[in-house]
Amino acid sequence: MSDLKAYRVGVLLWGAPLSWCLGVAALLTLPRLWPVADTSLWVFLCLLGLVFSTPLARRQHMGIAWVLAAVVCTAFISTGWRGAVRNAAQIPSALEGRDIAVQGYVASLPANSAYATRFDFDVTHRQSEDGQWVAWPRRLQLRRYYPRTRGASHASNAPVDAIEPGARWQWPVRLKAVHALRNPHGFDSRLKAWSRGVYARGYVRPAGVTPIRMLAAPTVWHYGLLHMRGQVRARIQSALSGQPRVAALVAALVLGDQQGISSPDWTLFRDTGVAHLVSISGLHIGLFAWLAYGFIFAGWRLGVRAGWRCFAACDAPAWAAGGAVAFALAYALFSGWGLPAQRTVLMLLCFLGVRRMGWHWPWWVVWLWAMALVLLFDPWAMVQAGFWLSFVAVAVLFALPKGVGGLAARTDLSGGQPDSSALAYSGLLRRAWDGLCGMVRTQWHLSLVLAPLTWLFFGQVSLVALGVNLIAIPLVSFVFLPLALLGNALPVAWSVLSPLALWGLQGLTWAHALPFGVWHPTAAPGWLALAVGAAFIISIFLRTWRMRVLVCAVLLPALLYQPSRPPQDAFDLLAFDVGQGSAVLIRTAHHALLFDAGPRYASGYDVGARVVLAHLLATGQRVDRLVLSHADSDHVGGARALLASPLLSETAVLASFPRAQLPFQSRPKSGANAKAVAQVPAQTQTPAQVWTPCEAGVHWLWDGVLFDIVQPQQGVLTHADGSQWLPDKPRRRNALSCVLRIRVGAHTAWLTGDMGLREEVAVIRGMARAAQPTALGESAGVTVVLAGHHGSHSSNGQAWLEALRPRFVIAQAGYRNQYGHPAATVRARWDAATPRWGLRWVDSARCGAAYWRSDAPTQLRCERVVARRQWQQP
Questions:
Q1: Any residues with CB less than 8 A from the CB of 558 and at least 6 apart, and which?
Q2: CA-to-CA distance for 235 and 238, rounded, in angstroms?
Q3: Is residue 360 classed as helix, strand or coil in its secondary structure?
Q4: What are the backbone dihedrals phi and psi of residue 288, each rounded to the nearest 5 degrees, phi first?
Q5: Nearest Cα to 32, choosing from 847, 871, 849?
Q6: Closest by CA position to 377, among listed 199, 196, 545, 526
Q7: Which of 7, 97, 373, 624 has its C-alpha lying 20 to 30 A from 22's C-alpha?
Q8: Which residues are 519's β-sheet partners?
Q9: Between the CA atoms of 494, 500, 503 and 505, what dihedral angle is there, to the nearest 10 degrees?
């Protein structure tokens, strides 16, 4: 091969996978995807262009550039076409909220909670309106609620027919499209559903067509494998029934099933930096493949020594490599074929394939090919945290220089024999010392390189991850994992593992309790976070400390970065997207107020912690005052998690109810086991913040912005101690909602809670008696109103609308919520006001988080619009 041909082959070798990754990345930057027809047209035009450009490429010696450009276009167009197909396969809006009958297979390990079973369901057919069964291949995420029995225990409320993985069923279901909350610095759950191919969510109807258990087709092998996984999980839960935390940990290690791990344990694993060890990671599969390779190779040696000709004639390295890949693939499939498992198996195939072909590729070329293959299977993995954490960690492991600097035997400057200090580390002791120092050095580099990624994706950096992983990695890899796998054949191994796992969890709890365990830096812009990550990676491979310090100077802008705040005599308003609930953040130049805290659902999902607190941590925002409008859990269910945070340790609380009436969580939905949920204890304790009643007349001034309470009226809440406040009467909670008015200049914002029509009239009359005509929006300023009771017809009356004449109305309501908020009559009232004074109303289901500033009063920003993603619901 000539030098020119070798050069071209070398460029194509690393350029092709890199071009594929660039093509996928370019597609993922688009906020919207093209329709299927348009994408198909682009495919045809690109193919036609490649055909006509081939002779031109040969004449101008531009063949390599044309090939790489073709790879980029192919990756871009094929990924867009697949995304367009997924968009076209979304559930039609005509099927949302209707009862339909479907047939299919249980496609995941069911997750059991206190009130329902959640599982994925692969639909094969659905029943049409004329009663015919038509093909309808879709994946759904369903819940089956337990039958409600008054006075019965949780165990007796289990469904009559257990849901087994891989079983075939006929269900009556009610569906709606996969909808995710959209907030700045928030988690996008729709991306996860999109990458898994989930097209709708719903629940099995308790009435209508009776669920029918059908015989599964024996030819569907992956459902049979799923059924085997379910049997193994059942054995684990039976053997460790008295230790649910250990059972969940063993199921995660053996099956990749993380559904049983509780939210506090996930927080523990994430904050201590060991979350990668409680999933089927590349470390586990790589260890499994290495053990398989060693056993096969050792068996070949024994056969050769025994004189067996069949062993002597075989190619031992080839058989061992093939067996290692086969065992790794089987383990990855049995564990659910997650992204780390895919990456590990594909990288093993690349490395072993290159070696068997006799090629000598650099590690980074094989790394690029493995990345391109993963993106070929799942292009949207590129925007997920696990993709970058996995590949960056592997790159660091391969790129680090071998050996431990400074530990090799040294010779004197005269070139004589090694001194006695060098000989002291010879033999087994020296190898053990070198191995320990190499492990510490490797983990140190991994912690440094992955710190910017965890900051970018999770908004935190674990400062104890280095020390914890030095103990946890060998313990999990060589003790926990072998015992967990051995328990499938010898259940006594799980009994041995149980106390060891409990001791490990206690150690993690101790490390998590350290005051410096977790650091929550302020979220920086994407370009600054990427610059910090690149600086860390470059500094790892620089040889001198001076250069490392120079490169790490990029950290200074990131550490000093602070989000912009409103100027003096101005404020901004952020109405979070919390579903069917309420939470609003008000900021002035130096202060912040939080109005309501969002819901906490019976399933354990805490919007206060996952949305509101996550935003506060990402922006480093401390809250000076918390206003809890009333004791309904959709408004204050997340307050416990917020009040336990250091960001609210000195927060003054204004509420229309005493501290003792603070609800823990939302009530279960229809058909749920309310008694079992009500017995769940609170996980956090409310600190001793100053807790005072909110009544009309309470007001304060922050940075030129006036805050005053206008509802409930004075004298309704007469005493400051909790025992003297209004008793718990649900029918009167809405009437006693705290109503907060914020004013600066001519601009006003109203936060109304669940105030009803009668209270709206009372507020209007009270303002009229106080001779404050401009307070109700009659000036030339802009008024922003939070729709009362999420847009219910019991609020938002015509008199209230005419008195305020708002420019913007924000309705915080869930997507296709069961109450129909905002109500049709209220929407019609708002629409009628649009041509009169330019009213614009938005609801959080379609707008996401809504942001408004008093110094830019004519603009209202919707998170779903300004930060649109191609996988977002149309």
A1: 521, 524, 528, 529, 531, 532
A2: 5
A3: coil
A4: -65, -45
A5: 871
A6: 196
A7: 7
A8: 461
A9: -50
User: For 840-873, b where at least 16 C-beta lie within 10 A, e where not — what string?
Assistant: ebbbbbbbbbbbbbbeebeebbbbbeebebbbbb
- Let me know how long the chain is: 874
Residue with tokens 């007469």: 718
Q: Give the C-alpha distances (Å, rounded to integers) separating 869 from 20, 177, 840, 860.
A: 21, 16, 24, 19
Residue with tokens 């229309």: 656
Radius of gyration of the chain (CA): 31
Question: How many CB atoms sit inside 10 A of residue 474's CB?
Answer: 11
Nearest to 654, CA basis, from 591, 705, 700: 700
Mean pLDDT of the chain: 80
Closest of 853, 873, 266 to residue 610, by C-alpha: 266
Q: How many CA atoms lie within 13 A of 82 on its CB side?
A: 17
What span, in angstroms and rounded, lies between the C-alpha atoms of 240 and 234? 10
Looking at residue 510, its amino acid is W
Q: Where are the beta strands (DSSP E) in 468-591?
A: 518-519, 572-575, 584-587
**Rounded-to-integer distance, Cα 527 and Cα 120, Å:** 37
The answer to whether the beta carbons of residues 236 and 487 sit under 8 Å apart is yes
- The two most distant CA atoms of the chain are separated, in Å, by 107
CA distance 425 to 407: 9
List, in order, residues 6 or more apart from 868 with CB less than 8 Å away: 31, 32
Of 48, 30, 32, give the one whose Cα is nearest residue 40: 48
Continuous segment of H or E residues that includes residue 269: helix 263-272
Q: ∠601-277-364 over CA atoms, to 5°?
A: 120
501 closest CA partner among 481, 521, 487: 481
Residue 831, helix vs strand vs coil: helix
Show the 3-state SS of 670-715: CCCCHHHHHCCCCCCCCCCCCEEECCCCCEEEECCEEEEEEECCCC
Tokens representing 597 are 């805290």
For residue range 51-85, what is the model confidence (pLDDT) as tens digits? 555 555 555 455 677 778 888 888 888 888 888 88
CA atoms of 786 and 754, how far apart (whole Å): 10
Long-range pairs for 490-499: beta carbons < 8 A, 24 or more residues apart: 491/235, 491/239, 494/236, 494/239, 494/240, 494/250, 495/239, 497/246, 497/250, 498/240, 498/243, 498/246
Q: Is 172 helix (H, G, I), strand (E, B) or coil?
A: strand
Q: Position 600: which residue type?
A: R
What digits encode the pLDDT tens for the residues 131-166?
889 999 889 999 998 876 544 444 344 444 578 888
Contact (Cβ atoms closer than 8 angstroms) between residue 677 and residue 637? no
**Is 165 within 8 Å of 255 (Cβ atoms)?**
no
SS3 state of residue 777: coil
Span 438-451, average pLDDT = 79
Closest CA to 873 of 90, 82, 84, 39: 90
3-class secondary-structure state, position 862: strand
What single string gives the DSSP state of each residue in 127-162? E-TTS-EEEEEEEEEEEEEPPP-TT--SGGGS-SS-
Place of tokens 């431990």: 404
Residue 181, classed as helix, strand or coil, is coil
Q: How far apart are CA 787 and CA 795, in angstroms?
A: 8
- DSSP H or E stretch at residue 626: strand 625-628
β-strand partners of 276: none
Where is average pLDDT lowest: 150-154, 211-215, 361-365, 534-538?
A: 150-154
50-59, 183-192, 224-233, 325-334: least confident range = 50-59
